[in-house]
Specification:
The chain is an alpha+beta fold and 307 residues long. The protein has nine helices and 15 strands. The strands form five sheets. It has a five-stranded antiparallel sheet with strand order 3-5-1-6-7.
């Protein structure tokens, strides 16, 4: 199993090119799906229909979001030499990694763009920029071991060794859709964010059987400690809509609402174990995205220590 966050940069080779709409995350999702469908049907089923996960569990409704794009580029018009870049977190079963890697160079070829750079990011430390290194283009499909840098146990150990962290800021960088009591949350608290991270990781552990069926016990025990964390939210609702897939929707002209909350939460805890105990789960949520509509780019959070 491969966990990675890729930085992908594409260069426009056409005199003029268009990439619509302003929110590019769903465009990335659609392009990724089209390329996978063309290159390998099994990889497409894994990433977009969750069939491998369902077969493994012998259950229905056990789909897993295997990827999440992160794009903030809103420009629609491009000219020759312009760059279009974004990041994408990927959970990739090793049996479909080759097909995934083969599809990446062609995501936007029909729009006149060629893949010019790929970097893999794997270090989730709080204070530093993610470590990254170029991946040689023609060996992308072979280098799965080099870019599988996400290990939850290592992540926990990293934050055990840090000084006491009493204040954090959680940025809701891309629209976040969470539910509480069956209703969309308009002003989340710390427990909402923590539970969403916990649910995302639990889903991954159960479906992909990562050596055990549940998260480490110390993460499960965080529930009681979370009630003593103070949080203050400054958020707003950000609307955006996507066109439905005409092959799946009866009414292909009706736009699908995909909006969510953006903004920030400031959290603090002035007693042991402080916020260090929560960091592995929060940073895993940052890496993997949380909430609804992850494959369309929603649910990106960023964790910063307040100084």
């Amino acid at each position: 199993m491969l966990f990675t966050k890729l930085f992908l940069e594409y260069t426009c080779h056409a005199p003029q090119a268009k990439l619509k709409p302003a929110n590019k995350n769903n465009l990335i999702r659609s392009a990724f799906g089209a390329c996978l469908r063309k290159h390998d049907s099994e990889a497409y089923e894994c990433f977009f229909q969750g069939l491998l996960a369902e077969k493994a569990l012998n259950k229905k409704n056990s789909k897993l979001a295997f990827f999440s794009p992160e794009c903030f580029e809103s420009k629609k018009q491009f000219k020759n030499g312009d760059k279009f870049a974004f990041q994408m977190s990927i959970i990739c079963p090793s049996l479909v990694w080759s097909e995934c890697a083969l599809a990446l160079p062609f995501l936007f070829s029909e729009h006149g763009f060629g893949l010019s750079e790929v970097r893999a990011m794997y270090d989730l430390k709080l204070s530093a920029q993610p470590k990254e290194w170029p991946i040689i283009m023609n060996s992308l499909r072979q280098r799965s071991k080099d870019i599988s840098g996400f290990d939850f146990n290592d992540l926990m150990q990293n934050y055990h060794n840090q000084k006491a962290i009493k204040e954090l800021e959680i940025q809701l960088a891309l629209p976040l859709r969470l539910k509480r009591g069956g209703k969309l949350v308009s002003s989340p608290n710390f427990i909402d964010i923590l539970f969403a991270c916990y649910r995302r990781l639990t889903h991954i552990y159960k479906i992909l059987f990562l050596g055990q069926n549940e998260l480490p016990q110390e993460i499960i025990n965080l529930t009681k400690s979370s009630f003593s964390v103070f949080s203050q939210a400054e958020v707003k609702w950000q609307n955006w809509y996507r066109k439905p897939d005409s092959s799946r929707q009866n009414n292909a002209t009706q736009l699908i609402p995909m909006g969510g909350i953006v903004g920030k939460l400031e959290i603090s805890k002035n007693e042991s174990p402080y916020l260090n105990a929560f960091l592995p789960l929060l940073k895993a949520g940052e890496f993997l995205h949380i909430g609804k509509n992850i494959t369309a780019g929603n649910g990106l959070i960023k964790i910063f220590e307040k100084t």
